[in-house]
Recover the amino acids of this structure.
């Protein structure tokens, strides 16, 4: 199957050409989720994104020796059919077509059968200028397991960062995909994550969103066999006029499947977020367990959060719950810290950091958790909260 790999693999240039054709005919998406809940794309110049296409910077990937890391040109014909657009289609909307039109880096990570990776797979992505699109496909074979730690950074001049991630978890496998998005607050960011979990497989998505002028995080997973599980956890810290669009979806396509959707964030100044969680349980799938929760802390009168939990449950024999909280700074906590000689701004920063701890503690390794804390503290430095 893999003879003459270069002649049968994915051609990025051809994919880009197809993407540009699809992009031309599609209309810009309307990010409208209800009355008063709309995100404007009027300041995003699609032509600027196309003109600033970046061909230079690539992801850096470090993986244990048993893990395979391939380029798109190394996919077999069978793998192309199963995985390249197995969970997404670039015809879905203009943003996905734009992703394909400027795609400059695509990697496929394969964790072979029965391999339990002791060390994490590390992915680092940097964008200095212009615009960039990355695709990552992760295939976790039967009875394999791994943790992926991905970090994204950009300079102030960076205009646009797009990312598509697909995860295929086969029978009895487990994958934890952890992302730290630390882009510039001047960068537009669109991240699409899709997962498919087979029998007794588990996918854990963990995200921290800190950067982006407008950052959209869309995570969806299909549970297609009994005992499949997914956990989607998203944390965020926004300031100034940042806008976050956070969406989590779990689709129970089989009985005896389980999901947890959880997001927690802090918004300062005039920052805004729309958080949406959607649980779908189909009619013939009993014994499913599902829960979602959204917690938000607002600092200042102009910060805003819209939390929209959605349940589409067509079976009575399930356990399903949802909840959302929106709170403000606790004056008693501020008074207590001030009475101990801590300045007001420092006291606020301590409360914010403490509020995000439940989500940070979900991430693997103390080293990575401390890295997240440092990034959050750095963004709070010299800011009037």
């Amino acid at each position: 199957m893999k003879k003459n790999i270069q002649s049968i693999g994915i051609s990025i240039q051809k994919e880009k050409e197809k993407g540009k054709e699809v992009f031309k005919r599609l209309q810009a998406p309307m990010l409208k989720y209800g009355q008063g809940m709309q995100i404007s794309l009027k300041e995003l110049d699609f032509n600027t994104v196309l003109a600033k296409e970046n061909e230079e910077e690539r992801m850096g990937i470090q993986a244990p020796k048993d893990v395979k890391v391939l380029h798109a040109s190394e996919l077999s014909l069978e793998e192309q059919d199963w995985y390249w657009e197995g969970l997404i289609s670039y015809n879905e909307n203009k943003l996905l077509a734009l992703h394909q039109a400027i795609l400059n880096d695509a990697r496929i990570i394969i964790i072979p059968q029965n391999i339990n990776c002791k060390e994490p797979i590390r992915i680092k992505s940097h964008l200095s200028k212009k615009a960039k699109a990355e695709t990552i496909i992760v295939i976790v074979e039967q009875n394999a397991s791994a943790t992926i730690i991905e970090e994204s950074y950009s300079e102030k001049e960076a205009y646009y960062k797009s990312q598509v991630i697909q995860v295929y978890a086969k029978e009895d496998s487990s994958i934890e995909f952890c992302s730290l998005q630390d882009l510039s607050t001047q960068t537009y960011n669109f991240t699409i994550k899709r997962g498919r979990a087979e029998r007794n497989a588990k996918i854990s998505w963990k995200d921290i969103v800190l950067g982006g002028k407008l950052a959209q995080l869309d995570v969806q997973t299909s549970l297609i066999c009994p005992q499949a599980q997914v956990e989607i956890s998203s944390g965020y810290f926004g300031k100034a006029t940042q806008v976050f669009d956070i969406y989590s979806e779990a689709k129970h396509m089989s009985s005896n499947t389980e999901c947890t959707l959880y997001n927690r964030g802090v918004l300062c100044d005039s920052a805004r977020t729309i958080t949406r969680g959607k649980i779908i349980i189909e009619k013939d799938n009993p014994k499913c367990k599902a829960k979602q929760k959204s917690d938000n802390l607002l600092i200042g009168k102009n910060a805003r959060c819209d939390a929209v939990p959605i349940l589409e449950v067509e079976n009575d024999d399930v356990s399903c719950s949802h909840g959302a909280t929106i709170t403000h700074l606790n004056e008693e906590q501020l008074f207590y810290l001030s009475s101990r000689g801590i300045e007001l701004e420092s006291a606020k920063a301590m409360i914010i950091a403490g509020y995000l701890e439940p989500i940070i503690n979900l991430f693997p390794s103390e080293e990575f958790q401390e890295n997240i804390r440092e990034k959050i503290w750095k963004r709070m430095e010299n800011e009037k909260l």
Q: What stands out?
A: The chain has one domain: 5-329. The CA atoms of residues 71 and 201 lie 26 Å apart.
